[in-house]
C-alpha cells in the first residue's frame, strides 16, 4: 500500500480547519451558532406563513396574480345581478317614485359600446339586487348610452334596461354639440375620449340636477357593487361630513367608494422615509442592547459583541427585509373607516358627490372646459389639488372593477378578461356574501323599527 503524503501547505490548511471547529465547539460560540440556527428556522416558518397570507398584495414578493385576481365574490354578485336583470325584463321592479320619498342618491352611469361586449347588465343588476323597496325608492337611476346613435350600444332598447332605469337620456338636441360628439366618436383616440367623456358627464350630472337628491353617485359601467352598499355609503358619507367639520371645513368634494389596490404599496417617492425608519430601528436596538450590556452585569456574558453584531447586523436587517417583501397592504392594511385620500386614489370607477358640489362646481367645470389632455379622473384630481379640496375614501371599498375591455381601446382583451394593468381591489373578493346579507337585513330592520310608517331615517 502506498504511503499517504501530505504537503506542508495542506497540513497547514487542515490545522486551520481543526482550529475553526475547536472554536465553534467552545460554549460561547456554540450558543451563538445555535441561536442563529434557531432564528433561521423561525425566519423560514414566518416567511412561509407570509407567503400564504400575502399572496393577494400586489406590492408583495409573494404576490400570485393568478390566484389573487380570481373573481370569487364578484362572480357570486354577477350571477345575482344577471338573475335580477332577467326578471326585470319580465316584470318592472320597484323604482324611484317622484315626490313620494326623499331622494338620497342620484346614480349616473355612462356606457359606451365595447364592440360586442357589455358589462352594463351586471353592473346595474349588482347595484339594484338586494335593495329593499324603501332603499330603491330613494334612488334615481340615470343610464346614458353615450352614442349619438344609441342603437350602436349592445343594450339599446333592451326590456330589462327600460324597466330598471329611471331615466335614459340622450345628447342635447343641439346641432353644434351633436356634430362635435360625432367628430369625437369618429376620432376615437385618447384626446377625443378625454373631451367626449366630459360632455358625457355633463349630460349625466344635468339629469341628476333635475331631482333634489342629497348626493350624486357616478359609476363606470364595468363595476360590481356589494350587497349592502347603500347603507355603508350613507354611513361613510355621514362620517366624512363629521370629519370635515372637525377639520374646520364646510364641505368635501367627494367620497371615493373604489380605489386601485396596486397603488397603495411601497411607493418609490417614500423610500427615503422607509430607509430612515429602518435605520432608526437599528440604532434604537443597538442602544438598548449596549445599555443592557453596560448596566446589567449578568447580561454581559450573554450580550457579547458577536451576539450584538448578529442581532443588529444580521437578524434585524433580515426581518426588516421580510417586512418590506411581504407588502404594505398585507403588513400595514388600511383600517376600516373613512380616510383622506388625496394621492394614489385611482380611478373614477365610483365617486359620490354632495349635490351642491355638482351644481356649483362640476357642471360648470365639465360644461365649459375644452380640455383634451386628461380623462375625467385625472382632470378632476388636478382641479381639486389646485383648490385643496377634501377627498375622502371608504375602506373597505363598496364596488369592484371587473372590466377587462376598455371603452376607448386601451388594454382591450378578448371577451373582456382581466389583465394586470386594470384597476382592481384585491380584498373585495374576500367578502362573505352571507355576512353581508345579514348586515344589510339588520340595517333595514333597524330603519323600519325607527319609523314603520315611512321606513325611518338613514342611520
From TrEMBL:
Any one Gene Ontology BP term: GPI anchor biosynthetic process
Gene Ontology CC terms: Golgi membrane
Membrane-crossing segments per the record: 31-50, 271-292, 304-326
InterPro entries in the record: PGAP4 (IPR029675)
Gene Ontology MF: a single term: glycosyltransferase activity
Superkingdom in the source lineage: Eukaryota
Record key words, sorted: Membrane, Transmembrane, Transmembrane helix
Name of the molecule in the record: Integral membrane protein
